[in-house]
Amino acid sequence: MNQTVLGILQEFDLDTYRPIVPRSLNLGNALPPRAGNLVKVVTGMRRSGKSYRLFQEMDALLEAGVPAEAICYFNFEDNRISPATPQTGDAVLEAFRYLAQQAGANLDGIYLFFDELQEMKQWGSWLRRIVDTTKATIYISGSSSKMLSTEISTEFRGRAIDFELLPFSFRERLTMTPDGAELLKGPHFSPRLGARMQAMFDEYLTRGGFPAAQGLPTSQAIALLQSYVQRVVTRDVVERHDIARPRVAAALARRLMGLNGKQISLRKIENDLRSAGIATGRAYLADLLAYFEEAYLVFQVKEFSLSLSEKSTTRPKIYAVDPGIALASSRAGACERGQRLEDAVYLELRRRHPSMRDGGISMLHTKQHGYEIDFVVGDALEQEAFRLIQVTESMEDEKTAQRELRALWEALDETGLEEGLLLVGSGHETIYENNGRRIVQASAWKWLLDDSETGM
């Protein structure tokens, strides 16, 4: 028996991680253990809370009466078992059954929680064998968006379902405060409470939602968030994809953080890096960008075209996985509050529309004047827009107000939609009406707290 694996299993104590802050990501009811079960996969960037989401599920099983001896948790990122192999996985199950037997447990079915399983070589084929031969309910987590496509498509087509976990939303962040339940009662807030919520929202846009960054002094939070980016560069990009020029990867990551909420040009980034003495090429940068997106550090939002025959040449926008990590990891002044506000809205749209296929959240430029709409929620493949959303820091400036409104009015006219949403970082709420159509101007932080199905 592998004594290292046995020791790791004996060390684990769920009580050590309590209290567990509940996450809003719903994994559905736990499936009864059986061979051939559907595997539930929680994916997201490193340190976004995937382990604690597994702990939350384990807690629910214990409360439902599942004996602790029937639940196995193992983190394959533990450096004591590196490099993890299928033999390591077999050793985990052997040691788990041994401990259950020692405890006198008579197990009819087991619950397996495998954290960061992508660290195991050939993990897809190993897990498929376990699924087919073990009466179990299985949850796994991983830091790659490709876990259910490129990497295990042949082994797990139709046999697994993934759930994307992002860092804390603004609503989840408020639940951590002592009076969080009271704060979330809304939707009507007194002027005093509204001012407090606005201040907390400002802090959220600065610190972000990574769990471990909450409560730290600002300097420590910045250092922590910077280390997260460095770890993604090193572990998920350079080592995972055998990148020969890590300096290019690190430089690109920093520039992407500063471009949060903006359109990107790989040609310009290439020229900037060359000017800084870093030789690279656009094709190489495009590969690195794809790897960063795979690791959940950034997301690309592309143009929503209203004609299947049109091929958009519009440059995509880039959004960071968290507004705080973007601010901490970009050059001073490169990631302004308005960019982070837009980022927070985009991330919330991802949370509220998890079942949408690629292109479900897009940007739009109107045909007539090329006005930009920040977000179109809809089916890009079917060319059907459901909702138009514009985000701005404030509507106090008259030129800004005219720009945002004219873009929405023109987009509503071209899409045939009757209502648009204008989210403001600060300022009053109102409704604009014109020729049977209307634009609802709402506070961004109130919209982020809306826990209805669509939040719109």
TrEMBL record:
Domain DUF4143: 235-379
Gene3D superfamilies referenced in this protein's UniProt entry, alphabetically: P-loop containing nucleotide triphosphate hydrolases (3.40.50.300)
Highest taxon of the lineage: Bacteria
AAA domain location: 39-173
Family annotation (Pfam families): AAA_14, DUF4143
Protein name per the record: AAA family ATPase
Organism this protein belongs to: Enorma massiliensis
